[in-house]
Design a protein that fits this description.
It comes from Paracoccus amoyensis. With 137 residues, the protein is of the alpha+beta class. The protein contains two helices and seven strands; from the N terminus they run E-E-H-E-E-E-E-H-E. It has a domain of 87 residues: Aldehyde Oxidoreductase, domain 3, CATH 3.90.1170.10. It is elongated, with a radius of gyration of 17 Å.
């Protein structure tokens, strides 16, 4: 699963995701891509599940690029623990996804295989997405 090798600080504030993506909104590698429409946090497990669904449908032909990286540590306290006593330990890693951000790109497969693979991958993600192609650009 994806996570940073090391970070400057162990824990982060929650923050908010507002505004459009200020980078990563163009197709750079592949011919087809999965683009987010709404802001959301995507966990490392969700990214991995989407990647597996995409590569499984493509039958390991073609190429997949993951354009987001989970670099935000999300902490949580255990169940049935009283308030106070500091912030909880890191539970999972997440990526902040802004509207317009390209999340996955694929290339080397036919149009219908690419669209179906990205549709299956989008079902694993908590964001509304749109499939974009280089012809549409």
């Amino acid at each position: 699963m994806l996570q940073p090798k090391r970070t400057k600080f162990r824990k982060q504030f929650k923050g908010r995701i507002h505004g459009e993506a200020k980078g990563g909104f163009d197709l750079n590698f592949g011919s087809y891509a999965l683009k987010s429409i709404e802001p959301e946090r995507v966990t490392a497990r969700q990214i991995e599940a989407a990647r597996r669904a995409i590569t499984r449908h493509m039958k390991r032909q073609g190429r997949v690029w993951i354009r987001i990286f989970p670099d935000v540590p999300v902490s949580s306290k255990p169940t049935e623990v009283r308030m106070g006593k500091g912030k909880g330990s890191i539970d999972f890693w997440a990526a902040r996804v802004h509207p317009g951000r390209i999340m996955f790109e694929i290339d080397g497969v036919s149009d219908e295989i690419a669209r179906e693979a990205l549709r299956l991958g989008a079902q694993k993600l908590p964001v509304l997405t749109r499939i974009v192609a280089r012809e549409d650009w």
